[in-house]
């Protein structure tokens, strides 16, 4: 019991030290980046998300020209964040067929898929249940490029089952190239984030801090 108390005290001390150094006020592991740092929030949501909604322009006869929404697994990196939403697509899928004709998409990811919003008592539609909407184009990565292997590793590390998906389905690694980014994490409307600010946001300290507190929680339970 005493050792658990010491670990908690050390965790609080280390958290405050890192937060001050990084300029990020995060009182607990379940709290978010500061609400006025929208680029950081966008990166945080994408990195925390295992899946997202993707809207395409439908090519199906019954819905041709309509927006069409599907769910896709995503990863921008398992332990580190690139900010790039990597997807594993196939032309056999409706979404894959749509982007062959029109590569413009909008993706949306939300912390509603984590325990953050339920812990806070936020409905998924509540603006405080943070979400990011990214519009851009889907790009298929050639399997001879360095980025292909970066994206493949990001996806396979986060979603190991993908390695077993059928070879004859033609799955390929793709990414979303952002052109417009909106973040909604508070009342008053969505905030626009430039692509440059999005990719320049430094998520390293937050990821390291989250990983540390998960490890501490495990140690405390075991103690």
Fold blueprint:
Layout: H1 2-22, H2 38-48, E1 51-57, E2 67-73, E3 86-89, H3 94-101, E4 104-110, H4 116-120, E5 131-140, H5 146-158, E6 172-184, E7 191-193, H6 195-200, H7 204-222
Antiparallel strand pairs: 1-2, 1-4, 3-6, 4-5, 5-6, 6-7
Helix pairs in contact: 1-7
Rough shape? globular
Please state the structural category. Answer: alpha+beta
User: Distance N terminus to C terminus?
Assistant: 7 Å
Helix content class: 25-40%
SSE string, helices as H and strands as E? HHEEEHEHEHEEHH
Question: Could you tell me the radius of gyration in angstroms?
Answer: 19 Å
Question: Could you explain how this protein is built, in words?
Answer:
This protein folds into two domains: 1-30; 35-222, Electron Transport, Fmn-binding Protein, Chain A (Pnp Oxidase, Chain A), CATH 2.30.110. Helix content is 37%, strand content 23%. It contains seven helices and seven strands. Strands 1, 2, 3, 4, 5, 6 and 7 form a seven-stranded antiparallel beta sheet that branches. The longest helix has 21 residues, at 2-22. It is globular. The termini are close together.
Short description:
InterPro entries: CREG_beta-barrel, Split_barrel_FMN-bd. The protein has helices at 2-22, 38-48, 94-101, 116-120, 146-158, 195-200, 204-222, and strands at 51-57, 67-73, 86-89, 104-110, 131-140, 172-184, 191-193.
Quickly list its features.
CREG_beta-barrel, 223 residues, alpha+beta, 23% strand, Pnp Oxidase, Chain A, disordered C terminus, 7 strands, seven-stranded antiparallel beta sheet, CREG-like beta-barrel domain-containing protein
């Amino acid at each position: 019991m005493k050792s658990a108390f010491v670990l908690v005290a050390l965790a609080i001390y280390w958290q405050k030290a890192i937060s001050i150094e990084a300029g990020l006020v995060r009182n607990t592991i379940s709290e978010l980046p500061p609400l006025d740092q929208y680029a950081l929030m966008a990166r945080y949501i994408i990195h925390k998300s295992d899946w997202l909604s993707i809207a395409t322009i439908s090519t199906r006869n019954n819905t041709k020209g309509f927006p069409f929404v599907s769910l896709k697994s995503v990863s921008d990196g398992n332990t580190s964040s690139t900010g790039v939403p990597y997807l594993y697509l196939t032309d056999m899928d409706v979404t894959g067929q749509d982007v062959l004709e029109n590569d413009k998409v909008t993706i949306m990811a939300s912390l509603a898929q984590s325990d953050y919003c339920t812990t806070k008592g936020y409905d998924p539609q509540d603006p405080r249940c943070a979400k990011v909407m990214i519009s851009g184009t889907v790009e298929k990565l050639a399997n001879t490029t360095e980025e292909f292997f970066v994206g493949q590793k990001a996806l396979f590390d986060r979603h190991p089952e993908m390695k077993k998906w059928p070879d004859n389905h033609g799955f390929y690694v793709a990414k979303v190239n952002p052109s417009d980014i909106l973040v909604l994490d508070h009342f008053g409307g969505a905030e626009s984030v430039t692509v440059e600010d999005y990719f320049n946001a430094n998520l390293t300290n937050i990821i390291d801090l989250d990983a540390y507190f998960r490890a501490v929680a495990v140690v405390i339970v075991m103690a």
